[in-house]
Design goal:
Mean pLDDT: 87
Number of strands: 23
Radius of gyration: 28 Å
Oligomer: single chain
Structural class: alpha/beta
Number of helices: 16
Strand content: 15-25%
Low-confidence stretches: 561-575
């Protein structure tokens, strides 16, 4: 069975015939076929009904027409006259329509030197076959030929109603598709080429790493050397998300935030000026700043509101004239409590947003989640929660029997699990897993509970993490400064680097040490003190780094690496028995360190005192 994107249950079909064709393509084609239905493609973002892609066969664009024979009043190779609500309407020949769309895509693909013939008679032309065709879902082959329509479209470019029935032979059905290929020269598409094809055809699935957004409308813009795209599960999930409550459980680096960003952008661009805004909530302030900068760069900041949870609570109270709690200890708890009570008394209205999306939902207390679900407009009922219990580093009053249903999240049957880690190299992930030990033992739950998912590496290789064995933090900080200067000499921008520390004192020490050695630094001291676009090394506590990623990460002051997670759950022979509070504190420390280590995408440096 082929992979159809979006899934049939999430696609908006214009006709029953179009849906029937989607079912036939999915059923009659093998698993190595990729299908897209009504997805904007290419720089012009045209909307063909179907795109078929196969590594050996090539690229095919299909237009679907649900017309009956009597709908067609006149036809030539240039234009057809059809009855539209009883009135004649002139439209472009359906095959010409498909060809126009295909050529736009081919022209865009041919801009990439890695997708064209480098020499020979087809130099500069696409290096794999491509074609286009039409499917008439209500006109039989006999009707097509006897009516004269075959004089306006060559018959081999057409599939008719009686050739796409449920009992149609799969091989014959596939052959009809491949008869549509007018350009058969070229070879198979390699896996790297396939990523480049998807990157160019579908801008929505691009994974933005560093640097400015690529401008497809700039004909002179140089295509990047490396084109990272969502994997097929991520893309199908992103495009298939509909309204209702949905939960995505995903390991660190599995693309959860990327999918959230895609969903927010899609809803924002589909909304009208009168629509309610979209809300993205996260716990960590720097992550909120980064997500807000992404939405701002896309011109969506007026439609997509990105908020740090407690700042959102503060704004709710001041906007609706509610009392703020007194400053001092318990201020943040008081913020949340005041909002909850104001919502209960209808002094703060519910249903303020057309959609609410919660990043790092594992850091939200149950009462926070219950509050946030009330902010979704009942007309859309659109709520998305991202979750990874392995990265839950803040102690919340969450019962082991916690369920999403208990806080008003109705996601049964609409949960997805992402297990593949794309962020980290295999070497970095192995180190992080060694740190976590038994704390990452996978646990299954039903789709209303919280599973603990162990990550699977995507197999991307990189250098082994560097372990600095020096007895004091100042010595470790000095060595980290030296290694970061070396990374900068290797081509990494200062803004690609971060130093993640266990506490504020270590953070400030590292900031002073790096600055004295000429390294530009940005020491994140508190809220509002983080600029993701500044070309400087980001220095922050480990907890504050949640949700972020950097090509180069250094972590000073790490305890012994081997068996940390195992010791947190079951101390070794001869070890001093820990109280439950001490054991919990160690488990928390291990989780934080695991999370921090998985912020690194390419290089990881760990500073440790072997005596600790």
């Amino acid at each position: 069975m082929a992979t159809l994107i979006p899934a049939i249950g999430s696609s908006a079909f214009d006709s029953t015939g179009e849906r029937r064709l989607a079912e036939r393509l999915e059923q009659k084609l093998d698993a190595d076929y990729l299908l897209w239905h009504n997805v904007p493609i290419g720089p012009k973002q045209t909307h063909p009904d179907f795109v078929v892609l196969h590594a050996r066969r090539g690229l095919l664009v299909l237009e679907t027409k649900d017309w009956r024979l009597q709908t067609v009043q006149n036809a030539t190779r240039q234009a057809w006259t059809i009855l539209d609500n009883g009135r004649p309407k002139v439209v472009i020949n359906p095959l010409a329509q498909a060809r126009h769309c295909a050529i736009q895509v081919v022209n865009a693909l041919e801009r990439d030197p890695q997708l064209v013939h480098a020499e020979g008679p087809h130099q500069g032309k696409l290096a794999f076959p491509w074609g286009h065709g039409v499917v008439f879902t209500r006109i039989t082959r006999k009707e097509f030929e006897t009516s004269g329509l075959a004089e306006t479209i060559d018959p081999h470019y057409v599939i008719c109603q009686d050739e796409m029935l449920e009992h149609a032979d799969p091989e014959e059905f596939q052959q009809r598709l491949w008869n549509m290929f007018a350009h058969r020269f070229g070879g198979a598409i390699t896996l790297p080429q396939l990523d480049r094809v998807r990157w160019i055809m579908f801008p929505q699935v691009r994974v933005q790493t560093q640097g400015a957004l690529f401008d497809d409308n700039d004909a002179d813009a140089q295509l990047p050397d490396i084109m990272r795209v969502m994997d097929l599960q991520q893309e199908q999930l992103a495009r298939s998300l509909g309204d209702g409550h949905r939960v995505i459980h995903g390991v660190a680096g599995s693309g959860k935030t990327m999918i959230l960003g895609y969903r927010a952008e899609y809803l924002a661009r589909a909304s009208t000026p009168a629509s309610k805004p979209i809300l993205i909530l996260c716990f960590n302030e720097p992550l909120g700043v980064k997500l807000a900068s992404v939405m701002d760069a896309k011109g969506l900041s007026d439609r997509v509101h990105v908020r740090h949870f407690h700042s959102w609570c503060h704004r709710q109270l001041t906007t609706y004239g509610q009392a703020l709690p007194p400053q001092g200890g318990g201020f943040y708890e008081g913020l949340v409590g005041n909002v909850i009570r104001a919502v209960e008394r209808s002094q703060i209205p519910g249903g303020q947003y057309q959609a609410v999306m919660i990043d790092e939902g594992h850091d939200f207390a149950p009462e926070w989640l219950k509050l946030i679900t009330q902010m979704v407009d009942p007309a859309t009922n659109s709520l998305l929660v991202l979750y990874d219990d392995a990265q839950s580093i803040y102690e919340r009053a969450r019962s082991k029997q916690f369920s999403f249903k208990s806080v008003g999240i109705q996601a049964q049957g609409r949960t997805t699990i992402l297990k593949i880690n794309y962020r980290n190299t295999r070497q970095i992930l192995q180190t992080a897993n060694a740190i976590a030990g038994d704390l990452l033992t996978a646990e299954d739950r039903d789709d209303d509970g919280i599973p603990l998912v162990k990550p699977v590496s995507c197999g991307r290789d990189g250098p082994e993490p560097i372990v600095i064995n020096l007895p004091t933090l100042p010595e470790q900080a000095a060595k980290i400064a030296e290694l970061l200067q070396g990374a900068h000499a290797d081509g990494f921008a200062w803004g690609d680097m971060a130093v993640l520390c266990r506490d504020k004192d270590t953070r400030d020490l590292c900031a002073r040490t790096l600055a004295k050695r000429g390294v530009p630094v940005q020491n994140r001291l508190g809220p509002g003190d983080y600029d993701p676009l500044a070309n400087s090394v980001k220095i922050m506590t480990m907890k504050v780094s949640k949700g972020l990623e950097f090509p180069v990460v250094a972590i000073p002051g790490v305890e012994r690496l081997e068996h940390m997670g195992a010791e947190a759950t079951e101390p070794g022979e001869g070890a001093q028995e820990l109280s439950e509070a001490e054991a919990q504190a160690r488990r928390d420390a291990v989780r934080v360190l695991y999370m921090a280590a998985t912020r690194a995408t390419q290089r990881l440096v760990l500073g440790t005192d072997q005596r600790s």
